[in-house]
Amino acid sequence: MKITYYGHSCFSVFAGGKNLLFDPFITPNELASAINVDLLKADYIFVSHGHFDHITDVVRIASNTGAMVLGNWEIYQWLNKQGLQKTHPINPGGKFFFDFGFVKSFAAVHSSSFPDGSYAGIPCGFAFDTPDGNFYYSGDTGLTLDMKLVPEWVELDFAVLPIGDGLTMGVEDAIKACEMLKVNKMIGVHYDTFGFIKIDHQKTLEVFKSAGIDAHLMGIGTTIDI
C-alpha cells in the first residue's frame, strides 16, 4: 500500500485500486502550505469527527474529485447540508463493503463538534480490509480497551495513530495501543501542527524502537510503501 501524508491527521492510502483520503485539513495548515489541495486525488474521504482540523477541506476536495464521503450520522447530515450528494453514513459498529474492500467503524474517545460549535456525533476510527493489506486509523482518541476489538475483525498490517499528546494519545499510550491492535508498524499523526502538540522527533522514534515498533513520522507531501 502507498501512504501519502498531507500534514496533521490528513493522509491518503492507495488500496484496492482506490485513493482513500482521511480528515482533510490542509489549506489552513501552515506546515502544509506546499500542498495544492486542488490536485489531490480521492475516491473516498473518511471523516473521523467534526473538529475543524479534520473537516475543513472536505467539501472542497469532494467537490473537485467526486469522492464519496463517509462519517457518522451527524457528519453525514452536515455534509448533505453543505451541498454534497455523494455521502454515506457509518456509525461505530457499522461495516460496509465497497469496491476497495470493507471498512468497519469503531468508537474513539474524544470530543467532537462542528466549526459552529454544534454537536458532531461520536468520534470514530476505521479499520480496513483490502486486497493490498489491512490497516486501522484511530482518529483522534485517547487509549481505550475497545482497541482490543479491532483485531477480532481485521488482521492489521499497520495502524495510524495520534501521538501529539494533550488532546489525544501520546507516545506511551500509542505503544500500548499497538499492543492491543497487534501491530508492530505505526504511522504517527496529529503532532507539531500547534504549539501544544509539538514533539521531539528523534526521541519519539527512539521510544517506539525500544518498544519494538517500526514507527514512521512522515514528512508532509512524502509517500511510503508499507
TrEMBL record:
Stretches of the chain forming a coiled coil according to its record: none
Classification via InterPro entries: Metallo-B-lactamas, RibonucZ/Hydroxyglut_hydro, UPF0173_UPF0282_UlaG_hydrolase
Gene3D superfamilies per the UniProt record, alphabetical: Ribonuclease Z/Hydroxyacylglutathione hydrolase-like
Listed Pfam families: Lactamase_B_2
Residues annotated as domain Metallo-beta-lactamase: 7-190
Stretch forming the signal peptide: none
PANTHER family in the cross-refs: UPF0173 METAL-DEPENDENT HYDROLASE MJ1163 (PTHR43546:SF3), UPF0173 METAL-DEPENDENT HYDROLASE MJ1163-RELATED (PTHR43546)
NCBIfam families: PRK00685.1
Name of the featured protein: L-ascorbate metabolism protein UlaG, beta-lactamase superfamily
Lineage, top ranks: Bacteria, Pseudomonadati, Bacteroidota, Sphingobacteriia, Sphingobacteriales
